[in-house]
Amino acid sequence: METRILICLVISTLVLTDFSEVVFAATFTSKLIHRFSDEVKEFRVSKNGGDKLLSSWPKRKSLDYYQLLVGNDYQRQNMKLGAEYQFLFPSQGSKTISFGDDFGWLHYTWIDIGTPNVSFLVALDAGSDLLWVPCDCIECAPLTATHYNSLDRDLSEYSPSESSTSKHVSCSNELCQLGSNCKNPKQPCPYIANYYSDNTSSSGLLVEDTLHLASSSGHASKSLVQAPVIIGCGRKQSGVFLDGVAPDGLMGLGLGDISILSSLAKAGLALNSFSMCFNDDDSGRIFFGDKGAASQKSTSFLPLDGKFDAYMVGVEGCCIGSSCLEQTEFQAQVDSGTSFTFLPKKVYGEVVAEFDKKINIKRSSYDGYPWEYCYKTSSEGLHKIPNLSLMFPHNNSFEVHNPVILIYVNEEVTGFCLAIQPSAINYGIIGQNFITGYRMVFDREKLKLRWSRSSCQDLSNEEGTPDQDKTENPLPTNEQQSTGGGKHAVAPAVAGKTTSNPSTASRQFMNKLQLPAQLSLLLLVTSLTFCILI
Predict the structure, then answer these.
(1) Which residues form the Peptidase A1 domain (predicted)?
(2) How far apart are the C-alpha atoms of 431 and 402, rounded to whole Å?
(3) Which of 195, 256, 271, 372 could staple 129 via S-S, CB 3.0–4.6 A?
C-alpha cells in the first residue's frame, strides 16, 4: 500500500516594527508544487518504484485527473461537516445472534449486498479487516439450510456478474495488497485472507459493490442508505470455514483501510467508530458510527509491532474477588471473532490459581471441553462464582459479567468451567465471553476502547445515543469546584489562554537585540507554511 507523505516548509520572518515605521523586515519566496505535478511524480517513482505508479498517474486535465481532484474535495468537505448519519446498521436490522456450537460460537448478522440485493449471514470479526462472502464458488461451505441445525432458509452465494452495481477492483488500486503480483495493473485484484485457526483462509477477487444500510433516530421512519464498499468475492475457503464457521461470509471490523468502517468514514456517512453488544441469551446489536454513552469508561488502543493494526489494549492487572494479583500485567487484543478468552501463560497461571483458591471446591474434568479449571455443581445448585476484573490505566476497571461456562447434561446444569485458556502467543485475546453484557465501543478515530453496562437495547428507536456528545472528562461545574469551609469557587480554566507575563526566555532574547531604548517596539514572529501532499 502506498504511503502518502505531507512535506511542510516553514519559513519564519522576524519583524521588529514601530507602529508607524518598519525597522527590520525580510521577504522569502518558495515554489508551490501541485500534488499531481511532474516533480511529485518523479519523487514518488524514485521512492516507490515503478510501472504500477506510472500507469495509474493521472494525465493533466484528463477525466481521471479531475475525478481525483473532485473526490479529494468531497473528502475535505466531509471532514469539515462531520458524518451524515448519527449511526448506521444493516438494512435488515441491528440485531446479531449466536447459534452456539452449530456456527462456531460467533455472533452473526444479516446483511444485503448488490443490486438486486442478496442476503448473507456474516460472522462479525473485530480481529480482521475484509468483508467477504461465498462467491462464484470453487470450494465453499454447504449453503443449504438442511446441512445446519439452526437455519430456516438457505444461505446465499454472490456473483458479481448478477449485480448491476458491482465492479472489479483493479491491481493498481491502493487497497490491492497483492497488486505487485499482477501481470497487468488493470486486471482484477486477487486477495488471500489468512486467519488464526489452523489452515483457515478465504481467497478470491476484490470487487466494489453496494452494502445496504439503514439509519433512523427518534420517531423518524427508517431511511435506507446505499454505501459502496470493498467486498471479497470468496471463491475458495479452507479450514474451519468449511466446517460450519462463517459458511456465508465474514465481516471484518478491523482498523485496516479495506474495512467497511473505513469506507463509511471516508465517505462521510458515519463517524469512524462502531459498537457491539452481546447478551447472555446469545442476542446482540451492532451500530456503525456509535460513540457510546457519557457514563462509559475507556482505555487507549496500543500499537502492535509499531502499528495500529489491531484493537490492542494494556491490562495493568487482574483481580479475583477482592484480591488484585501482582505481576498480572499484559497486553491483549479485543476480538469479537474469538469466542472465548486467552491469557498469556504466566498471567493465566496466576489467575486460575487464585480462582481455584477462592472457589474452594474440588476440580473436575469434562470430556471434550478444552478448559482445565472445571467444577461440579452441588445439590444446592451453582456455587457462588468469585468476581473477575481487569484493571486498565487510570483505575478503569472492567468486571467480567460471567467468566464461566455452564456444563449441561440432559438439559440440566451439572458443572461449570472457568472459560479462559493459556495463549499460544505473547499477548492475550479478550473474546466474546468477557465482553458480554457490555456496550463495547471501538472508537477508531480517537483510538480508544470504551465500555458501559448494557442490555443491548435498539438504539435506532431512541432519540439518539444518550449523552453521546459530552466529553469523557467534562470540566466540573462551579459548585463542584467549591471547597469546604465556605471558600469561593475557582473559575474553570479557559483553553488557549496563557499568562500575560513574558517568559524568561523571551526577555533574554529581547535583551540580546540591544535595540535603542527610545523605540517602542512590537516583536512579531510570522510563519509561512507551504505543504505538499505526495
Answers:
(1) 107-452
(2) 12
(3) 256
Query: Nearest-CA neighbor of 454 among 295, 301, 341, 332?
Result: 295
Partners of 211 in beta bridges: 113, 227
Q: Retrieve residue 79's grid coordinates.
A: 471532514
420 burial via Cβ count (<10 Å: 0-12, 13-18, 19+): buried
**Could you give the CA distance from residue 275 to residue 179 in angstroms, rounded to a whole number?**
32
Active site members: 125, 335
Amino acid (1-letter code) at residue 4: R
On whether the CB atoms of residues 385 and 403 are closer than 8 A, the answer is yes
For residue 148, what is the DSSP state? S
C-alpha cell at 286: 451492532
10 Å CB burial of residue 143 (0-12, 13-18, 19+) is middle
Percent of the chain predicted with pLDDT > 90: 61
Burial zone of 488 (CB within 10 Å; 0-12 exposed, 13-18 middle, 19+ buried): exposed
Q: What is the mean pLDDT of residues 257-283?
A: 95
| CA distance readout (Å), 250 to 47, 109, 118, 234, 290 | 36, 10, 15, 10, 21
How far is residue 93's CA from residue 282's CA, in Å, rounded to a whole number? Answer: 16
| pLDDT value at residue 351 | 98
Neighbours of 252 (CB within 10 A): 24
- Residue ranges with strand state E in 305-418: 307-315, 317-320, 323-324, 330-334, 341-343, 363-364, 374-376, 388-392, 396-399, 404-409, 412-418
Order of strands across the sheet that contains 317-320: 323-324, 317-320, 388-392, 396-399
Cell reading at 63: 477525466
Mean pLDDT of the chain: 81
pTM: 0.72
* pLDDT surpasses 80 at 503: no
Specify the DSSP class assigned to residue 158.
B
Task: Give the Cα separation of 361 and 115 in Å (integer).
Answer: 59
3-state secondary structure of 431: coil
Model pLDDT, residue 36? 76
Q: What dihedral angle (degrees, nearest 10) is formed by the CA atoms of 417, 419, 422, 424? A: 130
Residue-level length of the chain: 534
Residues with Cβ within 8 Å of residue 434, at least 6 apart in sequence: 341, 390, 400, 403
Q: Is 146 helix (H, G, I), strand (E, B) or coil?
A: helix
| 403 pLDDT tier (thresholds 50, 70, 90) | very high
Give the cell for residue 16. 521588529
Strand intervals (E) in 378-521: 388-392, 396-399, 404-409, 412-418, 420-422, 428-430, 438-443, 448-453
CA distances from 356 to 136, 373, 522 (A): 51, 8, 73
Cα angle vertex 498, ends 495, 500, to 5°?
145
Torsion of CA 382, 353, 419, 275, to 10 degrees: 110
